[in-house]
């Protein structure tokens, strides 16, 4: 028998029970092996961006964005991209360079940690709109899920301003209107023609409702989530 095990058993036998309570004598201490923490590369080596808003790229000098987006941004009063946008947008567009409008290849996942008001919505909305505009086929290719209705409404309004002067269409599925009216928006455009939206902005519960209860609600072609 291993001597350490024998010593441990001997010590346990020497424990004394007094009044129903065990008097524990000195125990042999064992050194626990240290567990080395291993983090994924994207957590251990994140890409950082400046907190100085003046470091962002000027919209009119950006070689990344197409003219219609530059025009729409300026109509929104945006003259300079925030640092988080200047960092994220090239990363997304670089992957899809030469891949649109089919969007083939395994897409990149991006996790952004930034405070409220730092421009995260535009960071993903701008490249999505630019890439979707290169396609002439209208199917649901982008689904944007927000936790509450107010945030979903804000994101929808941002997308609507960005897609001005394009044929792209965005719908809001967040319970703001009746379920039947949302189903109509999924099927038909403003002119009454059958035309699926390109972008769906929704809350989690409402998305599930449409997946189960709206015939023809197809997410087969989604490339951006």
From TrEMBL:
<dbReference type="GO" id="GO:0003723">
    <property type="term" value="F:RNA binding"/>
</dbReference>
<dbReference type="Pfam" id="PF00270">
    <property type="entry name" value="DEAD"/>
</dbReference>
<protein>
    <recommendedName>
        <fullName>ATP-dependent RNA helicase</fullName>
        <ecNumber>3.6.4.13</ecNumber>
    </recommendedName>
</protein>
<dbReference type="GO" id="GO:0016787">
    <property type="term" value="F:hydrolase activity"/>
</dbReference>
<dbReference type="GO" id="GO:0005524">
    <property type="term" value="F:ATP binding"/>
</dbReference>
<comment type="similarity">
    <text>Belongs to the DEAD box helicase family.</text>
</comment>
<keyword id="KW-0547">Nucleotide-binding</keyword>
<comment type="function">
    <text>RNA helicase.</text>
</comment>
<dbReference type="InterPro" id="IPR027417">
    <property type="entry name" value="P-loop_NTPase"/>
</dbReference>
<keyword id="KW-0067">ATP-binding</keyword>
<keyword id="KW-0378">Hydrolase</keyword>
<keyword id="KW-0347">Helicase</keyword>
<dbReference type="InterPro" id="IPR014001">
    <property type="entry name" value="Helicase_ATP-bd"/>
</dbReference>
<feature type="domain" description="Helicase ATP-binding">
    <location>
        <begin position="101"/>
        <end position="225"/>
    </location>
</feature>
<dbReference type="GO" id="GO:0003724">
    <property type="term" value="F:RNA helicase activity"/>
</dbReference>
<dbReference type="InterPro" id="IPR011545">
    <property type="entry name" value="DEAD/DEAH_box_helicase_dom"/>
</dbReference>
<keyword id="KW-0694">RNA-binding</keyword>
